[in-house]
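Example record used in the benchmark description.
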Amino acid sequence: MRLEMLRLRQTVGKMLALTTMPLLTITSSAIAVDSPAFPDPKNSCICDPQDPFDPQAQMPSGPFKGVCVNSCEQRTAKILSPIQAAPYNPKPGTIAIANVSHKGKFWVAQVPVNGVQDAIYQIEQMFNSCPLCHSQLRFRFKPGSEVILVPQSLSESPTEVRLSDLVYSIEATGTPGAGFNPAGALANLFGLSFRLVSLEDRAQRMIIVDKHKVEQIRLALRPEEKQKLLKNAMLQADRSGMKFMYSFYDRNCTTELFKVIDSSVSYGGSRKKPNASKEPFFYFPTGTFMSKILQKNKLNIENILTRSQQPEIQKVNQLLRQTKHPREALRERGLNNNTSKMISLNDEIKKGLLK
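Model output (structure tokens):
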């Protein structure tokens, strides 16, 4: 499998090098109102001079290396040292973490170390089915153990907000010139952000704006594994920063979530850990940046993939047919069982169950 992946990657890479990839490349000038937010490249990629944790992020490699990415909207969460956290007065028994997204702003969150009630795997159906989907983790906190948010920008008044849910979402980041191309998914065009976002914000984007269905699977975890999963997700984000590139093959929303899951779960007995290096998780770049481009330009990737005769697009289709669905991967691990069934996030909203 790994050798076959390498050969396909080299073959498609050569094809892309011979084309200018004109198909569906969208530049920032073509994107309408709801476009990704970019910092000023003339100001060292700074979004907010009053924000002490503004990453000033640039594309780490590829053809857009050094160009500012949309970190005014998507950025990786950062664990704070005691000195960094001190101005935000973190409560005992919490981890202070910056760059948490809520209502279009960035906050420092105080996350209870033993507060997770449920860990829920969410699958955003961007089109009809995976692999044209996005995976993320929802953490629901126990009553009385909510996450406390404080604005991190020094220009904001220190008003506290409490959240009963946080979402860990690993998303593609882009530059004004990156645009989208189905074949370009293999061409080292996108970075990665390891985000912590309020459930309210993600639901607004996925369901209200994009009108996607969001499937939910309650992970069959032991109490201590739920806490460890959240801690490992925050550590993964903190260690990753914004220094990695998205990879269709082995670094995307799904591969990175399963790395965190597998590092947090005790396998044995009915729980069997597959060989993750051989699992075919081939997924397109997803997240807020991609959603805005696809929605505003009315691009249906599913139709493009099925109708295109371009050789590089057909190679992408070959890989997609091999892709393992997250639901299947969780079932094989013993983490999706008779206790896992939940209604969709869409139905939770309709029934007024979200707090």
